[in-house]
Amino acid sequence: MEINAANISAWLQQLQANICAALEKADGGAVFGEEKWTREEGGGGITKIIREGQVIEKGGVLYSAVEGVAPDFLFKENSHSAMDKGTEKPQFFATGVSIVIHPKNPMVPIIHMNVRYFETSDGARWLGGGIDLTPHYIFEEDAKFFHQSLKKVCDAHHAAYYEKFKNWADDYFYIPHRKETRGIGGIFFDRLKDGEEMGFEKNFLFWQAVGEAFAPIYCELIARNKNKMYTEQNKQWQLLRRGRYVEFNLVYDKGTKFGLETNGRVESILMSLPKTAGWEYDFKPEKNSAEEKTLALLKKGLQWAE
Amino acid sequence: MEINAANISAWLQQLQANICAALEKADGGAVFGEEKWTREEGGGGITKIIREGQVIEKGGVLYSAVEGVAPDFLFKENSHSAMDKGTEKPQFFATGVSIVIHPKNPMVPIIHMNVRYFETSDGARWLGGGIDLTPHYIFEEDAKFFHQSLKKVCDAHHAAYYEKFKNWADDYFYIPHRKETRGIGGIFFDRLKDGEEMGFEKNFLFWQAVGEAFAPIYCELIARNKNKMYTEQNKQWQLLRRGRYVEFNLVYDKGTKFGLETNGRVESILMSLPKTAGWEYDFKPEKNSAEEKTLALLKKGLQWAE
Hints:
The structure is a homodimer. In chain A, a hairpin with a 6-residue loop joins strand 4 (about 90-105) and strand 5.
């Protein structure tokens, strides 16, 4: 396909549809509801929400394509644009798919995925995205499978991408005040463009591959864990882990902050939050418990892939 | 009493003890646990936490008194200090009591109170504080009682304070992305000092009166509401209102942000968060329901006191 705004939007809408179909099949119960919205300044989106499924308690698969006068933040790290030359502000176009899935069973991990494309009327364009996993309980074989799958996607496109984007995810999904990572990371990248690492066209193929990797990886993790038994204590721990997820998203996540500060669509931005979350004063897991073992693995720099 | 750091700290510790005793009596079940902590850079605090009471599900009454090299933020709005004169950074001393109480019964409101005192080694000193109420369901007679009580405290010290500090609370406890206030407000003030409105000594008496007003006001609100019946639906609504409380505290509250950014004691800072909270995509209360009526009253500028 020719790489242009219309084709990318169409591809992302198809990706959204494919992922929702795969998740509905994996859930085996609920189906996604759909809400279309438009944005006063230009563009809009399709928000697909699933709730109270057999596996998924609350989740969203969001597509959006918005445009308008480019906000300053777009150019802070981008020296290709008219902003630096003191001329008129360019128009921007941004499109992407964002996913957060909160499962009911604490043995099934929370997952987040995002692929996004930006372009401006003065010729700049770039890609961003990533997939990261937040298990309530870390199972080493699942963590290895997850990272190995992402490494395979990266390796097929650029030998340096897995390590680079894995470290980027470790740094991004970090909660400084807790000195913990949000989960076991994954890959995260931003501002991939022409002339960096490899040509835009090749980066675009990598970016598409990340989007397409989401459903098979997460459906496998669901299949592995959805029938595991759990106790009331496991549910309590899930609430606390979800509390940390809320802390990360509301205090640190750049997309969330930007959305709230720029009068974005609140219900779409905050679809990432779980149905329930909890906090307990100074909670310490029992010695040698599964909870303590999980906490010990919420660190930067662990190597899960071979 | 002479107004100095030692006397103020002692008074605040006594206030903490008195408030905990009053809350334990009002709860009729749980008692406060106590944890003393020290801060590497100087000072420390006493964190008192109550949980799983008859009335109070999770709450904290925190005393702290810390000191060290004054951080820049202290001087942004303060022109009395050495910072502006380019000389050496002064030392600071800060002490205060902070309270957040999350009740079990959704008919009992959440309450927050804070009184704080700052001074610097180059002679600046000021007072801050306030009390605000976050009912899950707004009962007009309670809202009137609450604001009337605060107005009485203010009026006894300065004719302009209630209106001024009530408006300040409306502005402070606002969630822009929701276009809602966190609750029904109350009073909020900061940087009360010498030469403003009235002398420091008179402001100090007002500040003490705010601290002392907390327990009788909240115990009355507990007594009025603790035996009210509630349904599962009321509990669900409580979760959503607590979700908004979490959004305010993590996204906007200056004390929380400052604490997290400056490596404060996390468990003390985040004691304000509820035991559980919830989010539901695009929740809309039923027409003419108690929930809809409460939402309609979460606005700035409502007059509850006469």
